[in-house]
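Most newcomers find our protein records easier to grasp once they have seen one. A learned vocabulary of local backbone shapes supplies the integers on the structure line. An example says more than a description, so a record of this kind follows:
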Amino acid sequence: MSNNKEQMKKYWKQNLKYLAILLSIWFLVSYVFGILLVEQLNTIKLGGFKLGFWFAQQGSLYVFVVLIFVYMKLMNKLDKKYGVDE
């Protein structure tokens, strides 16, 4: 029983690590790139739009959707590793 609890603690620790990394990436893209560094990024153009504007309007949404799929893949792998997959 104790071994199972330790395995679940490791599972949740890894899950929280994934969440922290992915949310940090999203924060970086949406807040830092879209708000704090918008003026510097606006000197670069992407598809006719200023890059800072693009990050603020579209980039953070695209990154968020990609991060959802990355999280799904990571969790499926983690679930299989710890035997809690469906």
Remarks:
- Residues 2-82 form one domain.
